[in-house]
């Protein structure tokens, strides 16, 4: 058996090469400088299971990442070892504390222990492990200091009986440099769930397959009724968040600051991604218009990174997951109160994505492009109608705030340009072509 110190030292030599190959590693756009150990906790002696936090230094940033490490596997990665991850569930069921790490279950949740874990295989920003058909544990890979919005908002929503979330059941927390960090969140697992992205892209594929003969409202896999229900679910979650945590009116200064932040993000992303350059003047103009034509809006806790991959359809309706906010944003920005219109804009962007990603890498075909536009228009409208039907009075129909909603959408598209540039360069064309369409500037 390898001693913890020796294991960590071996690991440190491999991390600079290994980290950039991980989907959850947020610094893939620049080389890894140094990797230093911050804390190591022995969770099991035999077989060896360590919880390791490392600090990764890159050009302009220093970030903490957590790893679950074993000497049973040559890669040292323990998240794929069902027996070892099962131990994490057992520790939460028992409410244990090990060397400053607290494993807790929610006060009224009784957990079944003795289950083996299996990691989910889909692309993601964190690592999630499923136990039986009951639980899913998300290990937050990049650790942020202070309260974790995912855990805080799930608990608040549970407190008001929200029906559109997977119930939070437990947590793993600890301290790093004297501040609280959330390491993991355990939730009810919905084995019958299908994510919105899978459903929406199936619908687009059906339509494309029949594009010669059918329009979006005639295709077998029409998604509009689901988009409408999804709009209702999102509006209900916003109303529940308001009930749980309150709401404020945004004054002119708040709106001006929000629009200024859009401009700053644009500057940062345009510097990094030259292909955004030609659209900068039109984007600035759209942001200015939003400021000139501003209407009264409210700010509150919202989801913060809403898209079709963050919603699950179960037999009982739509659920929203992953209330962490934009993974790249600093913790303070993610915790700030925001307009619910941001979430609406995120979902509208996602309908655009679902329709247009199908065209990536294909020869230009005007009919398919027209069908993609038609699908997106139809489902965006259905979503807004559903949202307007269920929204609280202070929020109302998102389409009332035309220029501001458009600015939120464009701001999200700018964020996506940076996201695709760093993670999936072949998809960069999806947000760029949307920006071209929305601003009326040729791509
Ligand atoms: N409660 C749940 N029940 C079933 N599947 C879930 C549940 N929560 C998450 N998932 C699945 O796990 C994936 C990743 O979850 P998510 O919270 O979005 O993690 P990440 O922060 O890594 O993106 C989701 O896309 C979904 O497919
Ligand atoms: O789900 P995450 O928190 O990891 O969100 C990040 O990754 C998303 C992609 O997985 C990314 O979403 C973008 O691509 C989606 C399709 O894959 C699309 O539905 C979204 O509209 C689009 O923004 C998200 O932006 C990023 O934060």
From TrEMBL:
Q: Name one GO biological process term.
A: glycogen biosynthetic process
One GO MF term? ATP binding
Named in its record, the pathway it takes part in is: Glycan biosynthesis; glycogen biosynthesis
Residues of the Maltokinase N-terminal cap domain = 18-88
Q: Which Pfam families match?
A: Mak_N_cap
Write down the top EC class of this protein.
transferase
**Tree of life domain:** Bacteria
The catalysed reaction is: D-maltose + ATP = alpha-maltose 1-phosphate + ADP + H(+)
EC assignment: the record states 2.7.1.175
Gene3D superfamilies per UniProt: 3.90.1200.10
Write out the entry's keywords from A to Z.
ATP-binding, Carbohydrate metabolism, Glycogen biosynthesis, Glycogen metabolism, Kinase, Nucleotide-binding, Transferase
Cite the record's note on assembly.
Monomer.
Q: Which family does it belong to?
A: Belongs to the aminoglycoside phosphotransferase family.
> What is the protein name for this chain?
Maltokinase
Organism (species): Umezawaea endophytica
Q: What is the lineage of its organism?
A: Bacteria, Bacillati, Actinomycetota, Actinomycetes, Pseudonocardiales
């Amino acid at each position: 058996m390898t001693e913890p110190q020796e294991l960590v030292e071996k690991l440190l030599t491999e991390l600079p090469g290994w980290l950039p190959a991980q989907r959850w590693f947020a610094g893939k756009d620049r080389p890894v400088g140094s990797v230093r150990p911050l804390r190591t906790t022995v969770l099991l002696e035999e077989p060896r299971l360590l919880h390791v936090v490392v600090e990764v230094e890159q050009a302009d940033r220093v970030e903490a990442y957590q790893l679950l490490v074993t000497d049973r596997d040559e890669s040292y990665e323990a998240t794929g070892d069902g027996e070892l991850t099962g131990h994490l569930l057992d520790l939460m069921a028992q409410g244990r504390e090990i060397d400053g790490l607290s494993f807790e279950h929610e006060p009224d949740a009784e957990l079944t222990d003795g289950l083996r874990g299996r990691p989910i295989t889909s692309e993601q920003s964190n690592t999630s492990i499923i136990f039986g058909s009951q639980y899913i544990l998300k290990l937050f890979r990049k650790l942020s200091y202070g309260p974790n919005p995912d855990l805080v908002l799930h608990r608040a929503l549970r407190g008001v009986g929200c029906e559109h979330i997977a119930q939070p059941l437990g947590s793993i927390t600890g301290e790093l440099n004297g501040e609280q960090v959330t390491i993991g969140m355990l939730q009810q697992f919905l084995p019958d769930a299908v994510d919105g992205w899978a459903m929406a892209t199936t619908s687009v594929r059906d339509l494309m397959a029949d594009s010669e003969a059918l329009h979006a409202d005639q295709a077998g896999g029409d998604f509009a009724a689901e988009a409408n229900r999804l709009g209702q679910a999102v509006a209900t979650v916003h109303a529940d968040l308001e009930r749980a945590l309150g709401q404020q009116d945004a004054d002119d200064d708040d709106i001006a600051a929000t629009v200024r932040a859009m401009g700053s993000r644009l500057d940062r992303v345009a510097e990094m991604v030259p292909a955004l350059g030609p659209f900068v003047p039109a984007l600035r103009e759209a942001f200015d218009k939003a400021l000139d034509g501003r209407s009264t809006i409210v700010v509150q806790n919202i989801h913060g990174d809403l898209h079709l991959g963050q919603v699950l359809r179960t037999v009982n309706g739509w659920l929203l997951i992953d209330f962490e906010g934009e993974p790249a944003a600093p913790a303070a920005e993610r915790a700030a109160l925001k307009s619910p219109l941001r979430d609406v804009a995120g979902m509208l962007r996602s309908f655009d994505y679902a329709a247009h990603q199908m065209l990536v890498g294909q020869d230009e075909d005007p009919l398919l492009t027209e069908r993609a536009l038609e699908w997106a228009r139809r489902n965006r409208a259905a979503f807004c109608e559903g949202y307007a039907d269920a929204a609280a009075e202070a929020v109302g129909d998102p389409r009332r705030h035309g220029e501001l909603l458009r600015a939120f959408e464009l701001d999200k598209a700018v964020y996506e340009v940076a996201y695709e540039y760093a993670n999936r360069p072949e998809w960069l064309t999806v947000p760029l072509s949307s920006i071209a369409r929305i601003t009326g500037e040729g791509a």
